[in-house]
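Lab meeting tomorrow. Look over both lines:
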Amino acid sequence: MKPTRPGPLVGIVVVVALISWIIVRLLYTDLPIVPWTAIPTVLLLAIGEAYSAWATKARIDRKPDTKPVEPLAVARLAALAKASAYAGALFAGVFGGFALHTVQLLTKETPRLEFFISAGSSLAFVVLICAALYLEHACRIPKDPEDQRPT
């Protein structure tokens, strides 16, 4: 599995934001109010992934007072990180597009509230992407010092 690159994630966020902005612009009055519960939920997921990354990195590096980590567990964590990064990019774009539409309506009370909720949700998903990339980085196996010798 190749490491996730930030460029495609940014591209996903931008493209999905533009698509969702167009859809929200057409259907805004028919849509339900944006729930605020996504923000704390996604931030808790990001904290969990960041902590898992920190603990996994310590176990892979065989720091004192840590048990060795199972290779299959590391593979599962890397798959979780990759999936979280792409899902986070998708949802950051959806909420970003919603925020792009509602930023034009800040003079009205309901759209103003929805702007802050959607912008906060989008930022929470960006934090999740960062935590996922950190977890994926932590799952890398360190190179042997013998392999790093110049030939």
Notes: The longest helix spans residues 71-102. Residues 37-141 form one domain. DSSP finds four helices and no strands in the chain. The two ends are 27 Å apart (CA to CA).
